[in-house]
From TrEMBL:
UniProt keywords, alphabetically: Signal
GO cellular component: outer membrane-bounded periplasmic space
Signal peptide: 1-23
Signal recorded as keyword: yes
Protein name: ABC transporter substrate-binding protein
Transmembrane segments: none
Organism: Neorhizobium lilium
Pfam families given in the database record: SBP_bac_6
GO terms of biological process kind: thiamine transport
Any GO molecular function: thiamine binding
Keyword Cell cycle: no
Length: 363
């Protein structure tokens, strides 16, 4: 795959620690983080990208408590949580966020983030990071159809198949497109599949496609969560490939799931890390970043069936082996890595027009 230091905020001084800008000395950062004693994360479900094992590994390695908020929050909800807790140093204020790439510039523009560059900064591709270190990509997944085989006998192979009358009351959007990265990219990919140009045009075409699904009676009102898929309430949904494989493992064949990459076009969804400007535990937040972007952390994402953002550098250096590669989902040759500018355009259109154009699934 060819992917086309600022000072610490000063809270450390309140607990008698020297301010830490960049982690030139990891030992000093560890000491400062341990003095804070805790890290608060949000929107990191244990079955998402290997986060369960990553959180446990971080706790075991550094002895910090990890406070976990709203594991199923969408990216927009994460930003709202920072805004709601600007003056709160208690357990409801997140230190770090894991957001869809398109939400990084928004969070920076809203002055919600503080910059920090990890030691492996140079191995993060430039197109998926803010040059000043306010946010940076950490992994990506590939958009796929997740199908409950107890309900759907013949799985769809491409976007146009979803309009088949056989899928009446069967197709869902994965989450609220006004706030959730996977839903935004579902609409965007559907638009690209119509032949629309990247950016706002693809967003509008995707909205029109989902309107057709609704008019045909194929689009259901609920969102495609793991629970609703298992219950048969949303037999076909779009989610990341790693979601489908993990769900299938967790369900243990009850129900059996298909995870299928659309044949014409699909998209890679890059997620990004960032530290809240108002983080109650800024040193713990920086240590978490160092952990996630280390070989250990990036390999943890790989074990969670996600493609780590340092993939190219780690593959080149032999840290990602052929054996490890064989366990990853197969992405095919139709994968598009959307440009950030196009995603910003598309997400703006989708957020403004989803309810009036489609409306289904808006709770």
């Amino acid at each position: 795959m060819d992917w086309k230091r600022l000072a610490y905020c000063g809270i450390a001084s309140l607990i008698g620690l020297p301010p830490i800008a960049q982690a030139a000395n990891i030992d000093e950062l560890v000491t400062a983080a341990k003095a804070e004693g805790q890290l608060t994360v949000i929107a990191v479900s244990h079955d998402w990208c290997g986060y369960g094992a990553l959180i446990q590994g971080f706790k075991d390695k550094y002895g910090l408590t990890v406070n976990e908020l709203n594991p199923n929050a969408g990216s927009g909800e994460e930003l709202a949580t920072i805004k709601a807790n600007m003056d709160n140093k208690g357990p409801q204020a997140p230190d770090v966020i894991d957001i869809g790439l398109v939400f990084g510039p928004t969070a920076k523009q809203d002055d919600l983030l503080q910059p920090y560059k990890v030691q492996t900064w140079n191995e993060i591709p430039g197109v998926v990071k803010d040059p000043d270190g306010y946010w940076y990509g950490d992994y990506y997944g590939v958009l796929a159809f997740i199908v409950n085989k107890d309900i759907v006998t013949k799985s769809p192979s491409d976007w146009s198949d979803l309009l088949d009358p056989a899928y009446r009351k069967s197709v869902s959007i994965p989450a609220d497109p006004r706030t959730a990265n996977n839903a935004i990219l579902s609409i965007y990919a559907a638009g690209l599949a119509t032949g629309a140009q990247p950016g706002a045009e693809a967003a509008k075409a995707g909205l029109a496609f989902y309107r057709k699904l609704k008019d045909a009676g194929n689009l259901v009102a609920g969102f495609g969560t793991a629970s609703s898929i298992a219950k048969g309430e949303t037999p076909i949904t779009t989610r990341w490939d790693f979601n489908g494989i993990t769900y299938n493992q967790n369900f243990k064949g009850n129900p059996p799931l298909d995870t299928l990459v659309p044949t014409s076009v699909t998209v890679a969804g890059v997620y990004a890390q960032a530290i809240s400007k108002y983080a109650p535990h800024p040193n713990a937040a920086k240590l978490w970043m160092e952990y996630l972007y280390s070989d250990e952390g990036q390999s943890g994402f790989l074990k969670g069936l996600c493609h780590p953002i340092r993939f190219d550098a780690m593959r080149k250096s032999g840290k990602i082996t052929d054996e490890m590669m064989a366990k990853l989902p197969q992405t095919g040759s139709n994968l598009v890595f959307p440009e950030l500018g196009h995603l910003v355009e598309a997400s703006d259109v989708i957020a403004k027009e989803w309810t009036t154009t489609v409306g289904a699934g808006s709770k």
